[in-house]
Specification:
Rossmann fold; 8 helices; binds adenosine-5'-triphosphate; binds magnesium ion
């Protein structure tokens, strides 16, 4: 007999919002993102993107709407430029256009990847490759951006740089972002909605007011204190 990874999970993301999907290892965060992108399939329920049923979309249309960066890195022997260009695939009918190339070049500039353009992705460090995969997803110009632990391999500066880019893009391009992240302080600094998962269900779903020592304590099974620092919440573990 198999058990369901997730049950009764219901939430919406408005354009411009950045939703943090939070919860313990194994609770189903990656599975949730994969269901939205149809890498995993749902046994019941439905997922709507801009009013349209994601499970009835053609693959190409889904890829124009949803971009996904997985938690696990992919092996690629392609160059950084070609890898990011792959993000344009859902829009390319016959030939790559000058616009496709321009979008890729702009992303390379924006993400600080200029010195890597012609390097094979397989030769990059974990963090460099993670930024390339994010750039590929952005080249898709999606309405929904799904990111599974996008900062897990990044140094402190790049964690903030990348989350700033994601947050700005969400706001300026009215993208719905859902990202899985284990660093709660980064989550509360850059995200504005919080989906807390516990025991295959939604524990809470809402704005920053849902992030309390009770909710975090209950979801993660650890005592935390939330203090105010420069008008921002800061989560500190009491288990030290
Ligand atoms: N392909 C699979 N076959 C069997 N079980 C799976 C498969 N993928 C995931 N699971 C199980 O489903 C549950 C949820 O996994 P998932 O990867 O979604 O967790 P997660 O919340 O992303 O965890 P983490 O924080 O460790 O990445 C886990 O118990 C996992 O073992
Ligand atoms: Mg995961």
């Amino acid at each position: 007999m198999s058990t369901n990874v997730l049950e009764d999970v219901s939430f919406t993301i408005e354009p411009g919002q950045c939703l943090a999907v939070l919860g313990n290892n194994g609770v189903g965060k990656s599975t949730l993102l994969k269901c939205i992108n149809r890498i995993c399939s749902i046994q019941a329920g439905s997922i709507y993107i801009d009013g349209k049923d994601a499970y009835k979309m053609k693959n190409k249309i889904l890829a124009q709407n949803v971009a996904y960066v997985s938690q696990k890195s992919e092996n690629s022997n392609m160059t950084v430029f070609d890898t990011i260009l792959l993000g344009r695939k859902p829009y390319i009918d016959w030939d790559i256009t000058a616009e496709d190339r321009q979008i890729v070049s702009d992303l390379i500039d924006q993400m600080g990847l200029n010195e890597y353009t012609l390097r094979d992705v397989s030769t990059l460090s974990g963090g460099e490759a993670q930024i390339v995969m994010l750039a590929r997803a952005l080249a898709q110009q999606p309405k929904v951006l799904l990111l599974d632990e996008p900062t897990s391999n990044l140094d402190l500066r790049n964690q903030h740089e990348v989350l700033k880019i994601i947050r700005n893009l969400a706001e300026t391009n009215e993208i719905c972002v859902a990202l899985v992240i284990h660093d709660l302080n980064l989550a509360i600094q850059y995200c504005d909605r919080f989906l807390l998962l516990k025991d295959a269900n939604v524990y809470s779903n809402g704005g920053i007011e849902t992030i309390t020592s009770e909710s975090i304590g209950s979801v993660y099974g650890i005592e935390v204190e939330i203090i105010e620092h420069k008008n921002k919440k800061l989560i500190i573990s009491n288990n030290y």
